[in-house]
């Protein structure tokens, strides 16, 4: 298969971790007889320095013409970097928001997987972490409270602020369909998280999700209130497969789920639109504290590349090969500094990339 991937290295550790992910993609291409063409684009601080803005229209056009986008991370030290003296719409993060909006990315997928080898990093009690977990949070990304009407005004002499949480049935249906499709490729269970005991938007969410579920009789649907979900995530995370939820609940629950894996450098993410097109990036940031030192953990970005193959190119065997290689490297005891513990072998970012390539 011939595919074009727009690649945005970004700032901080971005170029280092993306470099390793591209080596992994090249290894997969060679082994499975594919050809990947990379179209490198700028976004974030490096684009501010080179073009005066965090994302140019030309870069967006290039991303749109690719089959998928692989991103490192953007931004710098928010206290010391001159990028953060600029108005907020000119800062590095504005580029990412603009890109997500231009590409119509409404579904954010964040897997949270506890590797047995890294179980000691999990902050939960051993009796819980020893069961392991492998869930995927599917968060709606373009609706809800963050995009609803808001205002702050004085009413009868009292300053009052208002945010609104709006979803229409089409916005709910399209993400529910994504969740059921993804669940079919995993353990065939969707937990839809809402606050249907209080919110109208949640009652509509529940109704539409149930309608969509009728088309997926092989997938089990359960509903869970968001407050209970936050508790269940730390009490019994092994019960979850795909967790489907609206924007703000997903924002909070996906961070909670990342936290219980104990290792941000291991967590990939994907943002999808209605087609097979997607943007794939590590869940962490640009880690300016370790940038340029060959210390970063490239696994989150390498696993993002694996999600790219799985969800945008429907290359299941190829994605499995990457994930198995990562698993093998961990079993063999290799660790970058963020996941290092006594008795394991400390390796640099590029060595970790090579070890994974060698096991594909
Ligand atoms: P961060 O995720 O960059 O770093 C937090 C801590 O985790 C640091 O100690 C860092 O060294 C470590 N870390 C993160 N990724 C790692 C990896 N792959 N390997 C080893 N260690 C890793 O979060 P922050 O410090 O709050 O933010 C730094 C910059 O990143 C800010 O400018 C922020 O706005 C930006 N940011 C960008 C994105 C994105 O590009 N999507 C996401 C979050 C933060």
Description:
This protein has 360 residues and is an alpha/beta fold. The protein has two domains: 211 residues, Isopropylmalate Dehydrogenase (3-Layer(aba) Sandwich); 138 residues, Isopropylmalate Dehydrogenase, CATH 3.40.718. It is built from twelve helices and 14 strands. The strands form three sheets. A ten-stranded mixed beta sheet has the order 2-1-3-12-11-4-5-10-8-9, sandwiched between helices. It has a two-stranded antiparallel sheet with strand order 6-7. Helix 7 links the parallel strand 8 and strand 9. The longest helix has 19 residues. The protein is globular. Bound molecules: nicotinamide-adenine-dinucleotide. The site of nicotinamide-adenine-dinucleotide (NAD) has 23 residues, from helix 4.
Write the layout of secondary structure elements.
Elements: E1 2-10, H1 14-32, E2 35-41, H2 45-51, H3 57-65, E3 68-73, H4 92-102, E4 107-113, H5 126-129, E5 134-140, E6 150-155, E7 158-163, H6 169-184, E8 189-194, H7 200-213, E9 220-225, H8 226-235, E10 242-245, H9 247-261, E11 268-272, E12 278-282, H10 299-312, H11 316-331, E13 334-335, E14 345-346, H12 349-358
Residues 13, 17, 73-76, 78, 93, 96, 264-265, 281, 284-290, 296-297, 300, 338 line the site of nicotinamide-adenine-dinucleotide (NAD).
């Amino acid at each position: 298969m011939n595919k074009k991937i727009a690649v945005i290295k970004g700032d901080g550790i971005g170029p280092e971790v993306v470099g390793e992910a591209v080596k992994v993609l090249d290894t997969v291409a060679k082994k499975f007889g594919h050809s990947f063409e990379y179209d490198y684009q700028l976004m974030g601080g490096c684009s501010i320095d080179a073009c005066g803005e965090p994302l140019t229209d030309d870069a967006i056009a290039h991303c749109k013409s690719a089959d998928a986008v692989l991103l490192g991370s953007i931004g710098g030290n928010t206290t010391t970097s001159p990028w953060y003296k600029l108005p907020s719409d000119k800062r590095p993060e504005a580029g990412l928001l603009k890109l997500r909006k231009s590409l119509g990315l409404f579904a954010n997928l964040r897997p949270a997987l506890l590797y047995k080898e890294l179980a000691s990093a999990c902050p939960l009690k051993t009796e819980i972490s020893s069961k392991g977990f492998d869930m995927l949070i599917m968060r709606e990304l373009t609706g809800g409270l963050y995009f609803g009407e808001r205002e702050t005004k004085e009413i009868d002499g009292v300053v009052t602020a208002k945010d609104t949480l709006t979803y229409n049935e089409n916005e709910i249906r399209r993400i529910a369909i994504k969740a059921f499709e993804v669940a079919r490729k995993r353990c065939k269970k969707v937990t839809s998280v809402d606050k249907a005991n209080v919110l109208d938007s949640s009652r509509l969410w529940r109704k539409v999700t149930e309608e969509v579920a009728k088309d997926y009789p092989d997938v089990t649907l359960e509903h869970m209130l968001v407050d209970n979900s936050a508790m269940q995530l730390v009490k019994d995370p092994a019960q979850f497969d795909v967790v489907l939820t609206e924007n703000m609940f997903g924002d909070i629950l996906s961070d909670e789920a990342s936290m219980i894996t104990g290792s941000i450098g291991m967590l990939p993410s994907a943002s999808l639109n209605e087609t097979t097109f997607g943007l794939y990036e590590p869940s962490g940031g640009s880690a300016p504290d370790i940038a340029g030192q060959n210390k970063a953990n490239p696994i989150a970005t390498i696993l993002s590349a694996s999600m790219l193959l799985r969800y945008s190119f429907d290359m299941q065997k190829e994605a499995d090969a990457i994930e198995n290689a990562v698993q093998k490297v961990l079993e063999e005891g290799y660790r970058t500094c963020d996941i290092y513990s006594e008795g394991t072998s400390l390796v640099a970012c590029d060595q970790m990339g090579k070890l994974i390539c060698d096991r594909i």
